[in-house]
Amino acid sequence: MTVEATAGLENGTLATAAAGPRPWRVAWPDWRPLLLGLALPLLAAAGWEIVVQAGLASGRLVPPPSRVAAALWKLARSGELWPHVGATAARVGAGFVLGGAAGILSGLAASYSPLFRRLVDPALQGLRAIPSLAWVPLFLLWLGIFETSKVALIAVGVFFPVYLGVMAAVLGVDRKIVEVGRIYRLSGLALARRILLPAILPALVVALRTGLGLGWMFVVAAEYMGASEGIGYLLVDGQQLGKPDQIIAAILVFALLGKMADALLMALFKPALRWQDAYQGGR
Amino acid sequence: MSVAVEIAGLAKTYPNGLRALAGIDLSVSAGEILAIVGGSGCGKSTLLRLVAGLETPNAGSVRVGGDVVRGPHPAVGLVFQEPRLLPWLTVAENVGFGLSSLDAGERAVRVALALERVGLAEHAQAWPRELSGGQAQRAALARALVTRPQVLLLDEPFSALDALTRTALQDHLLELWAFDRPTLVLVTHDIEEALVLADRVVTLRPRPGRVDDIQTVALSRPRDRDAHNFEVHKRRLRAALNQSLAPDTLAPDSLTAAAL
């Protein structure tokens, strides 16, 4: 029975593939796992809300959801929130582009040229061992307290995972595929553009997502060190003025922005990864 | 007939000390189909990779159309044992991979013709993963032939296919060859494949690889795999192959290695 079912399934797949146009799968997301995952945090939030509303706790240090929502709504409606969002997004964007580009280029160079790798990789690995936040005072001294030092810090955070990811991915590219490029006399940039980059694209996306995640981490540090604008500033402001509802609101905005940036990155690369014939995970 | 590939005194020793080839002399005429057979480890794939310019010899030289091969040569195509299609390109883009110097219009025409010839016209926009093994290898053939190479090298191109697909593709290769009549150098471990395709069959003796025997296949094409004459050739080639696998009578391996 199982064997027959499997054979039937294979035939079905073959038939679709042979039919010419690619099957356009309309997959409705299954919301049930999402609801299950939300159950615990929603229950906790509702519980806390009830406890505070009933007067059993003041909620002064741990504000209930309603107060956080009110703070967020006030920030958004007064228009105060948007310049902060814009400033933070611009910093992460600039740092991500600079650090990402540098990471891709040096990762490619380090994997393509053994000389470059022996020359530069040990130094980079040494620098990587420094916790990136330790750069903050130096960057402030060198680059001033304004945008440049913040963007530089974010770029450093983005650079290392992208560099490492790209180098490891290129060194893992199948020699057989590279030989196809060699037979057509590709070398240097042409080989990188036509063989290596497409071959590492799935790994590159992972490296960029890791880099982007670190970018969001570092923007908090950068803005915490001194900024007059940005979501990180809202954190500092909330701390200094004793407004925990504003702090939690800012944290929520960070989470939302990070998730949106990640989704945007995935969506950008999705068309370029249609060719993938990979394990779909549990199917 | 003019000489397409001239191999002289070719030797290859790998860095680990393995002597893959020693003193190979061979000359292949333009338009000839040459098959190279031999036991595993006889260096037949290494020989092909040297002609393709993917490896550098330790001694001797390979000339293609008079040029000494120092790297992949523009007039030489190579079909690997696996299709090696680039998974991120459609079948048509894969076939056009070596035509990037042409403008898009001419490239499209050439690719369409090549796909037509291998019977994959309706799969032009498919991804490689959607092809069967035989279709993928036909696409690889199209990719190698679309640049109109003077010399096409084939490294056990059909060995991963089932028997029916294999014979079909052997016949198909001859049809494709008939269009431009490039020189074919084919490495195979299949005696029948060598005899169906080749004008001459070279048998290599292993460790280190040397030319042990060269047989001319005096059969008209298309060749009937079941004909009596074909059987005679098969028996003769099998005998040569067995002979090549027998230990060296004068200088056993260990002795040769020690003496050198």
UniProtKB/TrEMBL annotation, chain A:
Keyword terms, alphabetized: Cell membrane, Membrane, Transmembrane, Transmembrane helix, Transport
Cellular compartments annotated: Cell membrane
ABC transmembrane type-1 domain sequence ranges: 85-265
Keyword flag Transmembrane helix: yes
SUPFAM superfamilies (UniProt xref): MetI-like
Stretches assigned to coiled coil: none
Signal peptide location: none
BP GO annotations: alkanesulfonate transmembrane transport; cellular response to sulfur starvation
Membrane topology (UniProt): Multi-pass membrane protein
Transmembrane segments: 34-56, 92-115, 127-145, 151-174, 195-219, 247-269
This protein's GO CC annotations: plasma membrane
Family that this chain belongs to: Belongs to the binding-protein-dependent transport system permease family.
Protein role: Probably part of an ABC transporter complex. Probably responsible for the translocation of the substrate across the membrane.
Protein name per UniProt: Sulfonate transport system permease protein
Species annotation: Nitrospirillum amazonense
From TrEMBL, chain B:
GO molecular function: ATP binding; ATP hydrolysis activity
Keywords: ATP-binding, Nucleotide-binding, Transport
Domain ABC transporter, residue spans: 5-231
Entry annotated with the keyword Zinc: no
Cross-referenced SUPFAM superfamilies: P-loop containing nucleoside triphosphate hydrolases (SSF52540)
Family annotation (InterPro entries): AAA+_ATPase, ABC_transporter-like_ATP-bd, ABC_transporter-like_CS, ABC_transporter_ATP-bind, P-loop_NTPase
Alphabetical list of Pfam families matching this protein: ABC_tran
PROSITE patterns referenced in this protein's UniProt entry, alphabetically: ABC_TRANSPORTER_1, ABC_TRANSPORTER_2
Source organism superkingdom: Bacteria
Family listed: Belongs to the ABC transporter superfamily.
Name of the protein in its database record: Sulfonate transport system ATP-binding protein
UniProt source species: Nitrospirillum amazonense
